[in-house]
Write a structure and sequence with these properties.
alpha+beta, Glucose Permease (Domain IIA), eight-stranded antiparallel sheet, 15 strands, 40% helix, binds zinc ion, Cell_wall_metabolism_enzyme, transmembrane helix
């Protein structure tokens, strides 16, 4: 197709050829421009609408109204508060368990070493749980942030408490506070001055005698390392164990020795069997507790809770 027209006073003739190609290009450009303009207008329109007419914006582009947004936020806040409250309850429960643990430590620790309890004298020590706060009137972001921080601190504290308790338990297990005979025993002779059964004169008895049938298991009263296992003319078959905090225990008159020097034992391990060897008048275990070279009354080492 060809268009022709005469323009202006000079009467110039203008001509333009309209081909299919020209039309296609023009239409294409126009369409692209319209799409771009539409996109920009849509975006700008929404931005304006969100500020001014949220309800309209919602209708146009699926944007949430302030009310809906508030509703969702408050639902999340509620959940977050529930989590915080749960955390607080758990924290309170842990404090209760900690108090119980402290009482147990107090009962189970011999008075001679109470000041040496690792991480404080069995009364909680420095490992406290963080103070948790349930915040009700803060923004969701702030509440979330503070909860996450609380949880991180809480988790850290729990693992610290766990490590401390494990340390205390290991320490307690390394003190000679256990009973050295499995069962079937009676205390036949206490610690202190007594009439020597052989010399019939007053003599210091530096241990505790547990009468029991020959063969009754003798148990390590705490974890430690065997420092002696052999024969002694006085003690007969004897085992000695070195423990933490400078403690040493001695188990005498055994019929059979079951450990060797250098061996590591745990509390309750069978180390020998009751006998009547050495300077002994009948089957019994003669049990001594020594700390830094001084004999301690073994009865004072057995926790109050076991009496
Ligand atoms: Zn004795």
């Amino acid at each position: 197709m060809q268009l022709m027209w005469v323009s202006g006073p000079t009467g110039r003739v203008r001509k333009i050829s309209i081909t299919l190609r020209t039309v296609s290009i023009a239409v294409g450009i126009l369409a692209a421009l319209l799409v771009a303009a539409g996109g920009i207008l849509h975006f700008v329109g929404l931005r304006i609408a969100i500020e001014a007419r949220p309800d309209l914006a919602r209708a146009l582009g699926g944007v949430l109204t302030q009310a809906e947004q508030d509703q969702i936020e408050s639902a999340y806040k509620e959940r977050l508060q529930a989590i915080q409250e749960k955390l607080q309850t758990t924290s309170d429960e842990i404090i209760q368990i900690q108090k119980l643990k402290d009482r147990f430590m107090d009962l189970a620790t011999p008075s001679a070493v109470k000041s040496q309890v690792p991480g404080g004298n069995g009364k909680g020590g420095p490992h406290k749980l963080p103070e948790l706060k349930v915040q009700k009137d803060v923004s969701l972001i702030d509440a979330l942030d503070s909860s996450l921080q609380d949880m991180t601190e809480f988790k850290k504290s729990i693992s610290e408490i766990n490590a401390l308790w494990e340390k205390q338990l290991t320490w307690l297990n390394s003190l000679p506070t256990g009973i050295p005979v499995k069962n079937n025993y009676s205390l036949s002779s206490g610690f202190g001055l007594r009439l020597d059964p052989f010399l019939h004169t007053m003599a210091k008895h530096e241990g505790l005698d547990f009468s029991a049938p020959v063969g009754t298991p003798i148990l390590a009263s705490a974890g430690g390392v065997v420092s002696r296992s052999g024969w002694d003319s006085q003690y007969g078959n004897i085992v000695e164990i070195n423990h933490a905090e400078g403690f040493k225990t001695r188990y005498a008159h055994a019929s059979q020795l079951l450990v060797r020097v250098g061996q590591t034992v745990k509390r309750g391990d069978m180390i020998a069997k009751v006998g009547n060897t050495g300077r002994s008048t009948g089957p019994h275990l003669h049990y001594e507790v020594i700390r830094a070279g001084t004999h301690i009354n073994p009865a004072n080492m057995i926790p109050k809770s076991a009496n």
